[in-house]
Specification:
The protein is α/β, with parallel strands linked by helices. The chain has one domain: 3-Layer(aba) Sandwich (Rossmann fold). It has nine helices and eleven strands. Strands 3-2-1-4-6-7-11 form a seven-stranded parallel β-sheet, with helices on both faces. α2 links the parallel β2 and β3. α1 packs across α7, α4 packs parallel to α5 and α8 packs across α9. The N and C termini lie far apart (51 Å). The protein binds NADP nicotinamide-adenine-dinucleotide phosphate. The site of NADP nicotinamide-adenine-dinucleotide phosphate has 30 residues, from α1 and α6.
Length: 268
């Protein structure tokens, strides 16, 4: 039976753009109350106003997810406003396009702090509340590259694999608790992701996208569907599952396919 989202309380991180912004809108359309988190306060306010003017309920909470105190405060504000927390969508994240050795130590730290530690801090703050409620849903937006590594984004890939492993582990740990854990594995999605990523050579930005591209609204729709019908893993582009199976059976073959079809950059 589908879970009703009416009056459910949802936190969406990375709600100022792309998949997070569309997810917040999609949850609000289902009647959920949405706490919007990201660093850009003006964008969050604009989205909250839009949702509230359309009869929904939204709260903008400017948050840098790499700061555990701010993430605690985000959850505390949500709780103060609505008294519960039903769904945490850990979506904030960014990437890079360059060879591994081109990244500085600071850049490596930042990628891990936002993509992985940001996810952990969110879960750490949300889980005690969900335990008390004996219900809740942790939804983490990883990537298809959290299932199969691709070239020139090794540290991003490592953070996305970590999110998948974290969710798998929690899923078993939380079995019987009433709390669900799901991971979303989108392929390339039309958002601001490419503009936000670390690049060493701006010309490489246009090479980032190859393979199928989906819309943020489509990914958001499947995130909401996952909240209504909890599932361990969601592949918004279904054929991507084939890649995962193929990689489990023949990783060297997938290495060769990626080497052949990923765009050649002048540094290669
Ligand atoms: N686009 C793709 O091709 C693709 C494919 C697979 C998976 N994904 C995953 O989807 C998720 C969303 O990405 P997107 O494509 O929607 O990219 P996007 O349009 O660039 O949005 C990224 C969001 O993350 C927020 N963010 C970044 N750093 C943050 C921080 N330190 N604290 C709080 N929020 C932060 C940004 O807001 P502020 O800048 O305002 O903080 C923004 O709202 C990411 O986890 C990404 O890995 C994307």
């Amino acid at each position: 039976m589908a879970v009703s989202l009416r009056d459910r309380v949802v936190i969406v991180t990375g709600a100022s753009a792309g998949i997070g912004q569309e997810s917040a809108r999609a949850f609000a359309r289902e009647g959920a109350r949405v706490a919007l988190a990201a660093r850009r306060a003006d964008r969050l306010e604009a989205l909250a106003n839009q949702i509230n003017e359309n009869g929904g309920e939204a709260l903008a909470v400017p948050t840098d997810v790499s700061d555990p105190a701010r993430v605690e405060a985000l959850v505390a504000r949500t709780l103060k406003r609505w008294g519960r927390l039903d769904i945490l969508v850990n979506n904030a994240g960014f990437g890079h396009v360059c060879r591994f050795e081109e990244l500085t130590e600071d850049e490596i730290h930042r990628l891990v702090e936002v993509n992985l530690l940001g996810t952990l801090y969110g879960i750490q703050a949300a889980l005690p509340i969900m335990r008390r409620q004996k219900s809740g849903h942790l939804i983490t937006v990883s990537s298809i590259v959290g299932k199969r590594g691709t070239p020139r984004n090794a540290v991003y890939v490592a953070t996305k694999f970590a999110q998948v492993g974290l969710t798998e582990s929690l899923r078993v740990e939380l079995a019987g608790s009433g709390i669900q854990a799901s991971v979303i594995c989108p392929v390339g999605t039309d958002t601001e992701f490419v503009e936000a990523m670390i690049v060493k050579n701006p010309a490489f930005r246009r090479h980032v996208r190859y393979g199928p591209i989906q819309s943020a609204a489509h990914v958001a729709e499947l995130i909401v569907r996952c909240a209504k019908h909890p599932r361990p893993e969601v592949y918004p582009y279904l054929p991507a599952r084939l890649l995962v199976v193929m990689n489990a059976l023949a990783p060297r073959l997938v290495d060769r396919l990626l080497a052949r079809f990923s765009p050649k950059l002048s540094v290669d």
